[in-house]
Design goal:
The complex is a heterodimer of chains A (about 250) and B (about 300).
Chain A: H1 2-13, H2 16-38, H3 46-71, H4 73-78, H5 81-86, H6 92-120, H7 128-141, H8 143-155, H9 158-175, H10 187-193, H11 197-210, H12 216-238
Helix pairs in contact in A: 1-6, 2-3, 2-6, 3-6, 3-7, 3-8, 3-9, 3-11, 6-7, 6-8, 7-11, 8-12, 11-12
Chain B: E1 7-16, E2 19-29, E3 34-38, H1 45-52, E4 60-65, H2 70-75, E5 79-82, H3 94-102, H4 111-118, H5 133-145, E6 151-155, H6 163-178, E7 182-187, H7 190-196, E8 199-204, E9 207-212, H8 214-220, E10 224-229, E11 243-247, E12 252-257, H9 260-270, E13 278-281, H10 284-299
Parallel strand pairs in B: 3-7, 3-8, 5-6, 6-7
Antiparallel strand pairs in B: 1-2, 1-4, 8-9, 10-12, 10-13, 11-12
Helix pairs in contact in B: 4-5, 8-10
The chains are: A mainly alpha (about 250), B alpha/beta (about 300).
């Protein structure tokens, strides 16, 4: 399975668009939001702002990376590659497992790069334990979006999947308060934001960063994770990976 | 005890919704045989191949490849396949794709020889996304051959190849067949079936309508064609004994006959000279059209 894992990893790594949207863009947004808005807040509040932007952008990057890596399954099905693999001795089950693992692993560079930018460009000051806990908890929480990506990737054909990667990530980020904090949202939008997994994902990061662990984000995310995983299983049963597109 | 067949399909029925693509089809291919599944588009060839490879569960019937369930036979590395809707991964190099599959076989085909045989020696370092249609097809062939498997199941393998590519491809298949590999291929090219296969299985409407050597299938329609040059008048030719049809172009006359001997006797009696006289059996194409049109008629 290792060879298939490395093979898949190398393929995603060659995708410049993927690297741009999951690593470079969140890193640039981290600098941009912090420096632009940071200039307008009193000096005493800069640390809070930089920390909040950092957590939001880590969440944004992680969601994009998890969705982008897994929704790609749809491309491999549409191209006929998964059918082709099916008629080789490569075990069919490992193909699925590898895509899930690759999705989970690729969240990490996004989290780490944004964290480094937050620390060394924006000067966010957390203790070492907080940094580790922050990256670790968001990495673990990103499993929810890996499951969502798998369900979407299995359900859609290549063209729709290509659009879904961008749209889903953007909608989850924008409406979940990752680009602009929910404090700036009108009332109805706040309710909507609090119904989205992206909001609770960022909330998990904010809790860990502030050292005020409440458990609510974990419960909500676990619920979403279960729903997405169940959806993925249902779709997988209806549309096997080697089925012809359509 | 007879050896288990390379491909053993029994009572296979394939349905897509209300449409029955394959009706209770039974086919056994002994090891070492080269068999063409010949049929028009939509005859059910691909359904047979895909069901044989375990890509979907048939409505009825069983399939054994080398005596095992399709998935087990594939996992064990005994089968190589080219699919009509097979594909290659984007953002990967040809050599990487080949290595991924070769590594699964205990005794893979040596890389340099495999690449030369499939005709992809020059593109191993190239990205899959930069290949032409013919090159992609040859890479898919290399994947099918990667383990030098005893059984090859090929669905329209030459569809994206040019004439040279096709000739090279069939030379490879003949060579493999000569070394004891079993080759089963679906095609709608009569010339491929005629030239390559030991045995031709004509499929129409999801049923086997003829099964035998190309020569046996041609002889099934029984007729002969009598051909000669005749610059003069042609009156009465279609009334000769045995003649079922008369045609020709230019100086040539072509008579289809159900009794070549009687036709020739009458011709020779009435003509002093019959320049360039030829008597030929029916072509596989005539046989094919005859066989599939009668099967169609039987269905209605």
């Amino acid at each position: 399975m290792t060879d298939l894992f490395l093979f898949q990893l190398r393929r995603v790594g060659r995708n410049k668009q993927y690297l741009f949207f999951t690593v470079l863009l969140p890193a640039l947004f981290t600098i941009f939001f912090t420096q632009v808005i940071g200039g307008q807040v009193p000096a005493g509040e800069f640390q809070d702002l930089a920390g909040a932007v950092l957590v939001s952008m880590m969440a944004y990057g992680a969601i994009g990376a998890a969705l982008g890596a897994t929704i790609r399954m749809a491309f491999d099905r549409s191209s006929g590659w998964l059918r082709q693999l099916r008629v080789t001795p490569v075990p069919a089950g490992s193909v699925f497992a590898v895509d899930v693992l690759v999705g989970a692993l690729l969240v990490l560079p996004s989290l780490v790069v944004v964290a480094l930018v937050g620390r060394f460009v924006n000067g966010v000051e957390f203790g070492l334990g907080t940094w580790v806990a922050l990256v670790g908890s968001l990495w673990a929480g990103s499993v929810v979006f890996v499951a969502l990506g798998v369900a979407v990737g299995l359900a859609l054909d290549a063209q729709a999947a290509g659009a879904a990667i961008g749209i889903l990530g953007t909608v989850l980020a924008a409406l979940g308060g990752l680009w602009f904090p929910v404090e700036m949202f009108p009332g109805g939008m706040v309710t909507l934001a609090r119904a989205l997994p992206s909001y609770w994902f960022a909330e998990l990061g904010r809790d860990v960063a502030a050292g005020t662990f409440t458990g609510a984000p974990v419960l909500v995310l676990a619920g979403y994770g279960a729903v997405f995983a169940a959806a993925a299983l249902v779709v997988a049963r209806r549309r096997p990976l080697h089925a012809v597109a359509g | 005890m007879p050896e288990t067949p390379a491909l053993d399909v029994r009572g296979l029925t394939v349905r897509y919704g209300d449409v029955t693509a394959v009706h209770d089809l039974t086919l056994a291919v002994p090891r070492g045989e080269t068999v063409a599944l010949l049929g028009a588009n939509g005859a059910g060839k691909s359904s047979v191949v895909n069901a044989a490879l375990g890509l979907f569960r048939p409505a009825a019937g069983t399939v054994r490849l080398l005596g095992r369930e399709p998935t087990a036979a594939l996992q064990a590395g005994g089968v190589g396949a080219m699919l009509q809707h097979g594909g290659l991964p984007s953002e990967a190099r040809v050599g990487e794709v080949l290595a991924l599959v070769r590594r699964r076989y205990a005794d893979p085909w040596p890389l340099a020889d495999l690449a030369a045989t499939a005709g992809i020696g020059g593109v191993l370092g190239r990205s899959v996304d930069a290949l032409s249609g013919g090159q992609r097809q040859r890479v898919l062939l290399a994947l099918a051959l990667a383990g030098a498997p005893p059984l090859l199941l090929l669905d329209e393998p030459t569809s994206a190849m040019d004439v040279e590519g096709r000739q090279a491809f069939w030379a490879t298949m003949r060579d493999l067949a000569g070394r004891g590999h079993t080759v089963v291929f679906a095609t709608h090219h009569l010339d491929e079936a005629d030239a390559v296969a030991d045995r031709v299985v004509v499929v129409d409407g999801g049923r086997v309508v003829a099964d035998g050597t190309a020569a046996a299938i041609k002889s099934r329609i029984g007729g002969r064609t009598v051909r000669f040059r005749c610059p003069g008048p042609r009156d009465g030719l279609s009334g000769l004994p045995g003649v079922t049809g008369a045609g020709g172009d230019g100086d040539w006359v072509e008579l289809a006959t159900s009794d070549a001997e009687a036709t020739l006797r009458a011709l020779l009696a009435g003509h002093d000279a019959l320049p360039d006289l030829e008597v030929r059996g029916a072509s596989l194409e005539q046989a094919f059209l005859h066989l599939t049109s009668t099967a169609d008629g039987a269905l209605r």
